[in-house]
Amino acid sequence: MNMMVGLVMAFTASTAVAEKGYDQHPKFEQFANELRLEHGISKAQAREWLKDAKKQESVLKAISRPAEKVKPWHDYRKIFLTNKRIKWGRAFLKKNKDIFDEVEKKYGVSRYIIASIIGVETFYGSRQGTYRVLDSLSTLAFDYPKRPLFWRELKHFFVMAQEQNFAPGDIKGSYAGAMGYGQFIPSSYRNYAVDGDGDGVVDLWKNKRDAIASVANYFKRHGWKTGEDVTYRVSVTGDKFSEVANKSRKPKHTVKQLKQHGVKISQDLADDYKATLNELDGDEGKEYWLGLHNFYVITRYNHSRMYAMAVYQLSQELAAK
């Protein structure tokens, strides 16, 4: 009997510890003070929100194995360049043609790139994430070793919720705290999300006009060049090309320099035009792609070269007649 009571008490105690909110975390005071000083949100409000936030081990496991780091390009590509995703994307464009017409005209960003971003991120809004963003960001801000980014994003999340009159505990998203059709993190929401239909609320979860316009605005603000290409397939000779391959996301080397390193470029580009050389592991060996300015802009959305290439290639399929 005594042993049973002891086990019950131990289980109850461990459950209580597991269910503690983040208002009990040793770093709560530091976070709450920063939130008050930087954004004017009281410690009492921070405590009320964070006492409802719970640590999610599944979030810590998911963040440690992103597909961009564990899969080669030929496997990564197969995730996004599927017949179903292409078919759904064309239907999404057709169904929302009026929105894309308006947004493309206003922001100068290709509708196929916008749709491709939404297709890659959430399968055109159908997979926006099931995690409570409050739990995801709190777990990553307080208990993830590489936490500074998420520490800042959690603060942005609370400010965003206050600005838009959202209840933090009601908002769903990805394990990394990304939200809506385009999977905006809170700082991107605050800086780039727009009210596409003028109703006074920026709703990236259900309002397609807001979501599509916000992705377009993100690209415009990051320097998208209307009508310019994204990337070209190229070939290489010798071994000097390895000195410039995958060295920078931002266009760093001129066309002349790339050619001097054995990159064979058939397109008519000025010698002083800057680009990058991307090396990817394809089905039949190494692939080489010339990353132009707009390719770099896609990597501002997600830093992975494979992500940018998947977005580009999906956009080409969506645009195909």
Task: Describe the model.
It is a single chain. Strands 4-6-7-3-5 form a five-stranded antiparallel beta sheet. By secondary structure, the protein is α+β, with helices and mostly antiparallel strands. The N terminus is likely disordered. 53% of the residues lie in helices and 9% in strands. The radius of gyration is 23 Å and the shape is globular. 39% of the residues are buried. Helix 6 packs across helix 16 and helix 11 crosses helix 12. The longest helix has 17 residues. The chain has a domain of 61 residues.
Shape assignment: globular
* Overall pLDDT metric: 93
Number of strands: 7
Regions with pLDDT < 50 over 5+ consecutive residues? 1-18
The strand order across the widest sheet is: 4-6-7-3-5
Number of helices: 16
Secondary structure class reads alpha+beta
Q: Which value, in Å, is the CA radius of gyration?
A: 23 Å
Alpha-carbon distance between the two ends? 75 Å
Order of helices and strands: HHHHHHHHHEHHEHHEEHEEEHH
Report the major sheet. Answer: 5 strands, antiparallel
